[in-house]
Specification:
Layout (H helix, E strand, L loop, with lengths): L3 E6 L6 H13 L7 E6 L5 H8 L4 E5 L16 H7 L3 E4 L2 H6 L4 H13 L3 E6 L3 H5 L3 H12 L10 E4 L13 H19 L8 E3 L8 H5 L6 E4 L6 H14 L1
Parallel strand pairs: 1-2, 1-8, 2-3, 3-4, 4-5, 5-6, 6-7
C-alpha cells in the first residue's frame, strides 16, 4: 500500500523566528505519528533553521523551487547542491504560481525535474488546470500534457511525487469535490501506468487546492489520493496538525 504524505508549502511567509516556532510545534505534536511522511517547505531563508529543528525527527524538509545549474552567474537563483546542503530531501517544482508569475514552462519543469533527480533530491511536481480550462472541458488534456512533458526522458517514476493542484482552487477558498479530485488523480495514475507499467501502483499523487482540516477527510478517502500539498492551512500549526491527524485517521 502506498504511504501517505502531507506537505506544507509556506510560500512567501514566516521569518526565521516564526519558522522555528511553527516547525517546533509541528514536530512536537506529530511525534507519535508513523506510516507516512510530513514535509515542510519554508522560504529559502529559513531552510537551514527549520532543518536544525526537524533533524532526527520524522519530519522532512523541502524547498519551494530550484534552478537547474549547480553554480554560475544566475543572480537570485539557488542550486540543487545548495538545497541538499541546507538539509532538503524534497523540492517543489512547477507550482502554478511559478508557472503564472514567473512564466515557467513544461520544458523548463522537465529540466528541473531531471536535475533534481540527478542531484539526489526528490521532486514534488505540480500540475493542474485553470478555471477556464476546466469550464472548456479540457482538464485531462491540459493535465496530461503537463505530466507527459514533466516526465519526458525520465526512466523511473517513484522518486517523483505528483501533486494535482487545480489552479482555480488555490488560495480561493474553492475546492474540488472528492469525486472531481479523484477523477483527475485516477486519470494521472492511468497515464503513469501507460508510461511506467506497474510502478503506477506505488506512485504518490497528492491533492492541493485550499486543503483544510474540514475537507481533507473526504478527499483522503478517495482511492487514488495519497495525501495533500497544503498552502495557507500549513501556516497555522494547529490546522496543519489537524490535517495530518485526519489523514492518519482515514488511512
Amino acid at each position: 500500500m502506498r504511504g501517505w504524505m502531507v506537505a506544507g508549502n509556506w510560500k512567501m511567509h514566516n521569518t526565521i523566528d516564526e519558522a522555528i516556532v511553527l516547525s517546533r510545534y509541528i514536530v512536537e505534536n506529530t511525534k507519535n505519528i508513523h506510516g507516512g511522511e510530513i514535509v515542510l517547505a519554508p522560504p529559502f531563508t529559513s531552510l537551514r533553521s527549520v532543518y536544525n529543528v526537524i533533524e532526527g525527527s520524522h519530519v522532512r524538509l523541502a524547498a519551494q523551487n530550484m534552478y537547474f545549474e549547480e553554480k554560475g552567474a544566475y543572480t537570485g537563483e539557488i542550486s540543487p547542491s545548495m538545497l541538499k546542503d541546507a538539509g532538503c530531501k524534497y523540492v517543489i517544482i512547477g507550482h502554478s504560481e511559478r508557472r503564472k508569475y514567473f512564466l515557467e514552462t513544461d520544458e523548463n519543469i522537465n529540466i528541473k525535474t531531471k536535475k533534481a533527480l540527478a542531484s539526489g533530491l526528490m521532486p514534488i511536481v505540480c500540475v493542474g488546470e485553470t478555471l477556464e480550462e476546466r469550464e472548456k472541458g479540457i482538464t485531462e488534456y491540459v493535465v496530461g500534457i503537463q505530466v507527459k512533458k514533466a516526465l519526458y526522458g525520465i526512466e523511473k517514476i517513484n522518486d517523483i511525487v505528483i501533486a494535482y493542484e487545480p489552479v482555480w482552487a488555490i488560495g480561493t477558498g474553492k475546492n474540488a469535490t472528492p469525486d472531481e479530485a479523484e477523477t483527475v488523480h485516477r486519470f494521472i495514475r492511468d497515464l503513469i501506468r501507460g508510461l511506467y507499467g506497474g510502478a503506477a501502483e506505488d506512485q504518490k499523487i497528492l491533492y492541493g487546492g485550499s486543503v483544510t482540516p474540514e475537507n481533507i477527510g473526504s478527499l483522503i478517502e478517495m482511492k487514488d489520493i495519497d495525501g495533500a500539498l497544503v498552502g495557507g492551512a500549513s501556516l497555522k500549526g494547529e490546522g496543519f496538525v489537524g490535517i495530518i491527524n485526519k489523514v492518519v485517521e482515514k488511512r
